[in-house]
Each structure stands twice: as structure tokens, then as C-alpha cells.
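User: quick one
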Amino acid sequence: MTTAPAPGTGDAPTAFLDVRDLRIHFPTDDGLVKSVDGLSFQLEKGRTLGIVGESGSGKSVTSLGIMGLHTVGQYGRGRARISGEIWLDGKELMGADPDEVRRLRGREMAMIFQDPLSAMHPYFTIGHQITEAYRVHHPDADKKTARKRAVELLDRVGIPQPDRRVDDYPHQFSGGMRQRAMIAMALVNNPELLIADEPTTALDVTVQAQILDLIRDLQKEFGSAVIVITHDLGVVAELADDILVMYGGRCVERGPAEKVFSEPRHPYTWGLLGSMPRIDREQTDRLIPVKGSPPSLINIPSGCAFNPRCPYADVPAGGITRTERPELRLVGGDGAAGGGRHWSACHMAEEERARIWTEEIAPKL
Amino acid sequence: MFAYIVRRLFAVIVMLLVVILVTFGIFFAIPKFTGADPALMYIGKQADPAAIEGIREKLGLGKPILEQFWNFVSGIFAGRDYSSANGSVHCPAPCFGYSFKHENPVWPELTSRLPVTLSLAGGACVLWVTGGVLTGVVSALKRGTVWDRTAMTVALGGVSLPIYFTALLSLAVFKYKLGWVGGEYTSFADAPGSWFGGLILPWVTLAFLYAAMYARLTRATMLEVLGEDYIRTARAKGLAEPVVIGKHAMRSTMTPILTVLGMDLGALVGGAILTETAFSLPGLGQAAVAAINERDLPMILGVTLITASAVVFANLVVDLLYAVIDPRVRLS
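Assistant: Done. Structure below.
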């Protein structure tokens, strides 16, 4: 077998986090938006997965889906339609009681959001917001214990004078400090799964590096599984053990970070690498953008979703790229050569892709 | 926080002085320049020339404008005497004018009517805030459902139907046809039961109009707040939905409601003219209508000042409550 793990089999999970054939669709007046359309991946504790893709590729929708945040607070019409399986530490979340999933949220799985200013309530102190996260999962803890815990964590994430700053409001913090406080809030219950959704996008470049360092250090310390969602390959290069490239709601390539960076096997990944500025190499040419724009998630192109933008769409014979959707296949087949963990979804023959990468793409980067 | 309060109080004092200045200008200075005779407006055209001359003298209308203004303002704090050759009348502090038509100072007349208007506005306010906000929240949470559509249709009706229509309709049905509610207004201190009975219909009528507006405002605000990132964060922490809505979302939803509430209450304290007239409630609004009909200028002036002060004070209260709700207000 060289295809992705079979979806919906109900078998016991093989990893700490096991997402199988996740589909998240939103009915709208214009049609069904297929934000995530059949995504599977696994993640072990102590490892970091980077999910990469353009805006609208389904990265954030995936993370909110894992947290179960599409199914709460969706009042009235327009509910998301979700299917698939999400196994966290041996528990299946999709079919679980919503209240049970709520109790996992914030305790076993926590999330860091993109813009810490808008992600924190402007009317409550930082301390209140952290202790609230703690006390909801520790009903027996009194205010003093919770506050001590908040101060301790603010100290750990590098907030100076944490015992004083704990009573500040979010607007009294700088952008970087707010993101640190956000991280403290996410870590207050020692979650085993931490999802960071574009954790550095709203920050200055210098602060970005500090926050990435902090996330890496904390992961070592807490040993949790981390998912970093970003459009910035630089962030992924810093943090991730594994990379998952998303396009049009599906995974087009995934594998160990060093493999995806050194031997990418999907034209979209090549495009992403080509549009990334590098300071470690002599750069004389302009950056090469991926031509065109991301696909409409209502009318996803038939065949390979990337075909309208792919420079190699006509390489495979018979126009198969426009009629048939490519499945994820192991790079290097089942043999030991590929390492058995590097997958990509492309109709081109693997040898052809390897040739294009080494001869045409890599030299230009 | 203390500096903020002091600043706001100072602003209120300035604001009230401006209100008095403008009101004084309208009633005394402008007529002087346009050639109209304030004394004539004061007592009415039917009065005999001697009486008009007496009032002109008592009011000191011949004196310079600034001196007149000073007399008016100092009268508010110290009381004043209106005297002429025919004798003098004393208007004790706070003197907001003297009605020569009814031969009494305006202030006691205003204060005797204030409890009626306060009862009306207060009771209606409790009803409409509770009803409107609850309806709005439920509508927002059940957006697009039958409940939401029904509530918003009723609210649209509430906003569109004029109060003189709903007031007369409710009177016709509940008072005259069914006889469920009682008659005249009585003060709360005298008889709480009939105070309630006399006010319940005006309360409901007035509250219906405002509740409709507040329901729409609450629904819109709540829907906006529910889309905020910090609501998602609250859920991501594992908070139960009632806490997310009741604590995190409500706190933000209250801000615009408070703003509107301050203005509405302030304006209502100046007299719910239509409601009081329709239900024959002896409040400030009714006094204003009567004064306008009789061209009893001092009375109109008094009601105007009370209304303006009420709006200013209501806004002060709102500003202070803002600071309690929103920490960002305290510092800026």
C-alpha cells in the first residue's frame, strides 16, 4: 500500500494525535465551502508539526476543527459540517460528548492565536484571563493558588515583574508581551497538545524570533505535541520536525522537515520555497511568486486542485491533472530509500519530479 | 480613576453653565434684539398694560443683558426678589423663574411633578432594559430561526408604532374594555398599590417602544461581539457556553447599550410628553405641554433647564460606568 492511511476505519489510533480524513465544510448562500476536504496526519508528543499554506488553504480551519471550536457557539443557521476522526491520546473527539470535549479544551489541548490584542478580552486583566483558564479546569483551586500559578507562568514566559504585571490589562502590554501572556494562558494547564496559529504574524521581526525561541524552549520543557500553523516557511524551518503543506483544503505534501526542505516533491512546495526570501544564500534574482491565486473553496478545480497554477500541469499524459485528483503517495515507495514518512500528491512520475527539482528548481533558489 | 472623576465633574459644571447661558439667551437676549417683548410673552397678550409694565419692571428687563444674566444665575443659587412699584414677590432659592400667570415660583411646581416623571421613566426603564436586552440576546443566539424572526418583526412594530397609538389602544382595551387597570396617578408614598396600578399601563406602553429599539441594538451588538477573537479564546480555554455569553460577550455588549440608555433616560426625565399626555399623568411632560399652550415662559424655561440638566447628569453617570466597565477609558 502506498496511499494515505485508510480513513474512517475506526481502528485504534497509532499516534498521540491522529487526524483521519477530516472534512470541514461550511454551507453558505453561494455554495458549500470545502475548507478542509480529507486531511489526515499523525503527531507524537514531543514533536512539532508545521502546517504551511497560503491564506484560505484550510490551515486555521483545521486547527479550530481539532479544538472542536466549529461546533460550539455556532448559533442559528450556517453550522459547519464536519466529518472524519480526531483521536487525541486514545480518545475520539468527533463523536464525543460536546461537554467532554469542552473539558479537554484548554486542559489537554490549548491554542495560541494570531493577534494577541484581539484574542484577549480588553475588559479583563491579564491575570484574570489566565486564572480563569486555570480555574475552569481546577474547580477546587482558590483564587490565591490560581493567581500564584498565573504569576509563575508569566515569569516563565519572560514577563518582567510578573507579580505586578499580572494586574495589568492587555492594552498595557506591548505586542510581544501580549503574545507571551497568551502563551502563558495556553500553558497554564500543561496541555499535551499546543496549537499555535500564526503565532508571530502580528509581531515585529525581532520579537518574532524571541517568541519562536520561547515556544521551542517550552516544548522541550513540557514535552507536548505542538502544531505550528503558518504561511511563513521561515517559522517552520525554525520549529518544525515535520511539515504538512496544504493546498485547497488538502494535504499536498508532508514529511520530515529536512526532507521537505531538501527534496520537496510537489510543484506547490517548490513554489513556496521559491517565494521565500533567504539570507543564507547569494540572491541575485527576484523572488519567484506562485502564479495565480488560491483556488475558490466553493469551486475547487477538478483533478489536481493546483493544476491551473502548476507550470507542469501538462507533463503527465492525457490531461490526467485536470480530471483525476492525485492521492498522497509515499516518496520512494515502500523502500527504505524514502524513509517511509515522506508523502506527496502529484501525478508526475517521481523520477520526473526528482529531476525537475534537482535540475530546474533547486539551482535557482 | 480619581482624576478621571474630577475631570468629568468639572466638565459637567461647565456644561450646565453653557446650558443656562444658552437657555437664558433664547428667553431673554434674543427677544430683546428682535424687538419682541419678553414681558408680553411672560404674562400673555391678554394681560392689561399695567400688569405688563409691572412685570417688565419686576424682571428688570430694562437693565443691561449681563446684569439680567447675573440676576438669573444668582437667583438659582440664592433666590431673588421680583419687585416693582406695585410690590414685590419673593422667589426662594433655587429660583428657576416665577410664573406671573399662575403667580407662583416655578421650582416647587417642577419638583412636585418630578416624582411622577421619575416613576414613569424609572419603571419603564427597568421593563425595557430587561425585556429588550433579553430579547436581543436570545435573538442573536438563535439567529435566523423562527424565534429570531418573530422577535425582530415585533420589534420593528414596536419601533414603528407611534406612542399615541399604542397608548390609546392599550387604554381602550385594558382600562375601558377590560377594566384591568386602575385610574389616577397616586404617589408611591401614599398608596404603593394604586401607584403601581396607575403606572403599569404607561410603563408597558413606553417600555414597548424602547424595548423594541434595545432588542435590535442588543442583537446587532451581540452578533458583532460573538464574532470577536476574544470570544473564540474564551471557548478555547474550555469555558462553558453560559460563561462565554453571560460574562465575556455580555460585558462588551453592555457598552453601547449604556450609551443609549444614558441619553434616553436623561431625555425621559425631562418629560415623556406624549405618554404623560395620553395617560393624564401630572408629570413634567404634561407641565411642558400646558406651559407651551398657555405661553407660560418661565415654566417652559424651567422644564428646559431640568431636561438639559438631566441629560448632562445621565451622561455623567454613563461616563463613570464606562470607566468601571472599560479599563481603557480610565487611563486615557
